[in-house]
Amino acid sequence: xxxxxxxxxxxxxxxxxxxxxxxxxxxxxxxxxxxxxxxxxxxxxxxxxxxxxxxxxxxxxxxxxxxxxxxxxxxxxxxxxxxxxxxxxxxxxxxxxxxxxxxx
Length: 104
Prior knowledge:
mainly alpha
């Protein structure tokens, strides 16, 4: 049986965070930027859960932070999607490069 330790989980979380960072800095589509931010937030959630399990198994601090981050991420996604829909309706584009040329 394969044992998954804290190091394996932290490596996975680090990879997810840098994939999200790469997507955030290289993409121009607002939806892709939003997905990249969500990926980075989820990698932080993995860190909180892993540290809670391996360092402080009797406490629930990491789980409480997870619930808080999931709540904030849901609110952020709802607001961001509403903003993206309004931008698309008014300018027919959700490209970041076009945002500098938009006149409000």
